[in-house]
Amino acid sequence: MGVEEKSNARRVQELRLFARDxxxxxxxxxxxxxxxxxxxxxxxxxxxxxxxxxxxxxxxxQVTRPENRRMAELLGIQVTQVTExxxxxxxxxxxxxxxxxxxxxxxRLAVIDHHPPPPGYTADFVDIRxxxxxxxxxxxxxxxxSGSGISVALATGLLYxxxxxxxxxxxxxxxxxxxxxxxxxxxxxxxxxxxxxxxxFPQEAVTAVGQALTGLRxxxxxxxxxxxxxxxxxxxxxxxxxxxxxxxxxxxxxxxxGLLGDELxxxxxxxxxxxxxxxxxxxxxxxxxxxxxxxxxxxxxxxVFRPGVGYPLSDDPGDPATVEWLxxxxxxxxxxxxxxx
Length: 341
Ligand SMILES: [Mn+2]
Prior knowledge:
By secondary structure, the chain is an alpha/beta fold. The chain folds into 2 domains: about 5-195, inorganic pyrophosphatase (n-terminal core); about 205-340, Roll (Diaminopimelate Epimerase, Chain A, domain 1). Helices cover about 40% and strands about 15% of the residues. The protein has helices at about 5-20, 35-45, 65-75, 85, 135-145, 150-165, 175-185, 190-195, 205-215, 235-245, 280-285, 320-340; strands at about 25-30, 55-60, 80, 90-95, 110-115, 125-130, 215-220, 220-230, 255-260, 265-270, 295, 300-305. The strands form 2 sheets. A 6-stranded parallel sheet has the order 3-2-1-4-5-6, with helices on one face. A 6-stranded mixed sheet has the order 7-8-9-10-12-11, with helices on both faces. A hairpin with a 2-residue loop joins β7 (about 215-220) and β8 (about 220-230). α5 (about 135-145) crosses α7. The radius of gyration is 20 Å and the shape is globular.
């Protein structure tokens, strides 16, 4: 047994101890649950041998991306939306693929994550490894160390989680991710994976992308596009558009925004993998009005603006005033963070 396996076995013991004598122990995932979060939560529940009722998977938001909803449906993963007030009625919580702020969260916490923690982060159980590409990798290690069996559905979910978080081992990947990936591939259902991972857009969303690209503005290597009001079920076009904008020659930063209700959601991208310099996650955090509204990784991040910060509430894709407002914000944050270094 190697050192890594031993420490994972110890982590499993500690986590089981944390869960003991807690009849209802919810597993909390991010605001818009993603495949890594959902699969990892399902894996933790299996590891602890708990039922859906004893450990419901909960989120303060909802699963929005159609392929993520399809994944949850095909793999039988149910995410229950809860309010902050409801969350605070639980004595203990396991947070997966995210970190609640201990200052604002009353429950005792176990945290399993791979996003960089704020300094001095503490919880009853903490396993935070920013060098690992997906939490699903960490959970796979737990399951292997514990000797628990992994069902086909769970292996498929965990593999899909690693695929999406690492862009199929192309982004922010560690040797541990590759090892978990190879292990899971033996167990997973390839046909199911193909059915999950096929995103599609309605025609109106594609037309809006065209208008957003026509109205795109760029300055000093930063490209910004605005999609206007996003119809229900089409929010996943935002990260796709942000990715696409990063392909433009000479562009090293991109942002794509759109209105969801009266909130302005913005996906930020930065080229250059996990290299040095200012990261997209830092930019998103500095743009956020309050903690929790912005964050992410070096290469990809997301921020949500709430009404009252003065953005134009335009429904029109490519609206010049909104594009200008967004460009000033993103360029300002990038410059300010560069100046600090
Ligand atoms: Mn993740």
